[in-house]
Amino acid sequence: MTSPSPDPSTAPFLSARPAPAAPETSDALQIDACGTRCPVPILRLRKALSRSAPGQVLILTTDDPAAFTDIPQAMASLPAQLFAIRREGDCVIFTVLRQ
After folding, report:
1. Residue 79, helix vs strand vs coil
2. Measuring CA to CA, which residue among 28, 37, 99 is closest to residue 62?
3. Is 77 in a helix, a strand, or coil?
4. What are phi and psi of 68, to 5 degrees?
5. In this predicted model, what pLDDT tens digit does every residue of 56-86 receive, in sequence order?
């Protein structure tokens, strides 16, 4: 004899863990490095990180084409996590979370 299949509406389940929230950009520290070339965008980011508290969101805007590769490489030596990179016209915008 086979047992009846359980009713799916009453079967126990594990709820999904919520996705991490995107950092709030309204309180983010804006760093404008447009018109500069490396290493200036990295230096401005490093200076801003040294003055910010853990958990602070920083947004670096630059038009330096080398920054697209230089900033992610520099993140290994900085107390921060790269959260997002996006292009807007000629600018590259990095969203960084201070750890």
Report:
1. coil
2. 37
3. helix
4. -60, -30
5. 999 999 999 999 999 999 999 999 999 999 9
